[in-house]
Design goal:
18 strands; alpha+beta; paralog of FGE (formylglycine-generating enzyme); globular; four-stranded antiparallel sheet; about 500 residues; single chain; about 20% helix
Length: about 500
């Protein structure tokens, strides 16, 4: 009897809590500031959407954020003093459950060819992955050059040969296709397969009224002075942008410490995306099986015939191994993954405590003579880097380009103890000599990648490890997955 009473009491409390939560998030029918009713044509028709929770986009998993110790979790065997452990906080966000696959990327190329193939084929050519990354001067990899990206047997394998710039373009394209389908499903847009060149659906251009569909594109207005209006961000229909995750987001999601926490106590820090210091599965059902595909020893990439341990000579299907506690697959092994950040050796001095990220380039929308936004040849809003004049009067930023913040200032280019600002332009000077010849592998065009891959040793499977590559280069063991900002409550429903 007491147990039944306790269950009833818990149920009542839970229902009451849910009810309170809905009341807190519901803006109500009238303004708490003026008392005027919302969504009332007789009061001018000021519209307030009561949408509470952000929809989860296709392929994404919610990553509940929080504080964690970012950085190395194993011995610094390379003595790089890189990624020194430090406490940071990551806001909640969404992450792709798997790496972007070959079939995902071929869908992207098909759309580009359909839209731009007639008049601007270079757009399609620029987006194609570099299949020649498979070539090895001392290995017979030519079959992968011909089949890995195109053959249906590799559909669910991670796409490789994609550089950082291409990965970002894919993310923007994905944003527009997902939002376009949302509007079509809501009956706001008609499905238009005749889009061509810059006259294609772009989320930002649509919100600014620069994309005019053949039919639809408007909703009923409550303003008594207009019958129809365009869709707005305030309606809560459209999703934020797909993008690459920041390094902090990627590392936080890979560790999956949510599985090792009780209240605010993390009872075991992880070296890998799973517990323990072993790369083999310790569950009775899968005892001894590798948790990821990587190089076990020199010349040993998959084990012995008849009992192939990781069952992958190169990459593997993106769901071939066990997910971590966030439900993310292959956050160690398979392929390394691009992240958003510009590379610098990480220390305490060059990181923000909240949503740390290096790579900010603040831009503004380019306006025409009438003050209206303009679109480029791809249908995207034109943007340009802000100037010091644009930032005048600001206290939180004073310029547009912060990729080299704290290491590209004049003090960073001192020669023999004397300040030498010859040719100093505020961005690249610390990486070039006075003859403008590059003398460092590190620059503002170099990006971080993480995760370890099928051709790496186990050392690189730790989420705290990091490497870098020029943003225009690609590899046969480097892919990517997308992320999305979470708006609203951190935990969702």
């Amino acid at each position: 009897m007491r147990i039944a009473q306790r269950l009833l009491l818990v149920t009542i409390i839970f229902v009451g809590f849910v009810g309170c939560s809905e009341n807190i998030t519901d803006p109500g029918s009238t303004s708490s500031a003026t008392g005027w009713a919302y969504n009332d044509p007789e009061n001018g028709g000021f519209e307030v959407s009561s949408a509470v929770e952000q929809e989860t986009g296709p392929g994404l998993v919610l990553i509940e954020g929080g504080t964690f110790t970012m950085g190395k979790t194993q011995d610094d065997v390379l003595y790089e003093w890189n990624n020194v452990p430090r406490r940071v906080t990551v806001a909640s966000f969404y992450m792709d459950q798997t790496e972007v696959t070959n079939v995902n990327y071929r869908e992207y190329l098909h759309w580009l060819k359909r839209i731009f193939g007639t008049n601007n084929m270079q757009v399609v050519l620029n987006a194609r992955p570099d299949t020649l990354v498979w070539r090895d001067p001392m290995g017979f990899n030519e079959p992968y050059v011909e089949t890995y990206f195109r053959h249906p047997s590799f559909n669910e394998y991670p796409v490789v040969g994609v550089d950082w710039l291409q990965a970002n373009d894919y993310s923007l394209w994905r944003t527009d296709r997902v939002n376009e389908k949302i509007l079509i499903d809501k009956g706001i847009l008609d499905n238009n397969t005749e889009q061509v060149d810059e006259r294609n659906f772009n989320t930002e251009a649509f919100l600014y009224g620069l994309y005019v569909p053949a039919e639809g594109g408007t909703v009923e207005s409550l303003d008594p002075n207009q019958e129809q209006r365009g869709v707005r961000m305030e309606d809560g229909l459209l999703l934020p942008k797909y993008r690459l995750p920041t390094e902090a987001e990627w590392e936080f999601a890979a560790l999956g410490l949510i599985g090792n926490s009780v209240d605010e106590l993390v009872w075991e820090r992880r070296t890998y995306p799973w517990n323990g210091h072993n790369v083999r599965n310790d569950s009775p059902q899968h005892m001894g099986e590798m948790r990821a595909n990587f190089v076990r020893a020199k010349g040993d990439l998959m084990g012995v015939a008849g009992s192939l341990n990781d069952n992958a000579s190169i990459t593997s299907p993106v769901r071939a191994f066990w997910p971590n506690d966030y439900g993310l697959y292959c956050m160690a092994g398979n392929v390394n993954e691009w992240v958003l950040d510009v590379y610098r050796p990480m220390s305490y001095q060059d990181v923000s405590g909240f949503r740390p990220f290096r790579g900010n380039v603040f831009k503004k929308i380019v306006l025409d003579a009438n003050g209206s936004p303009m679109v480029d040849s791809l249908g995207r809003l034109r943007r340009e880097k802000i100037t010091e004049r644009d930032a005048e009067g600001r206290f939180n930023y004073r310029k547009g380009d912060y990729r080299n913040y704290l290491d590209g200032d004049p003090v960073s280019v001192m020669q023999n103890g004397e300040l030498d600002t010859t040719g100093y332009d505020g961005t690249e000077s610390m990486y070039v000599n006075n003859n403008t010849e590059q003398n460092s592998l590190i620059s503002d065009q170099v990006r971080v990648y993480k995760g370890g891959s099928w051709r790496d040793r186990a050392y690189w499977l730790s989420p705290g490890e990091r490497r870098f590559l020029k943003q225009t280069e690609s590899r046969d063991d480097l892919g990517f997955r997308c992320a999305m900002t979470r708006v609203g409550t951190p935990s969702g429903l």
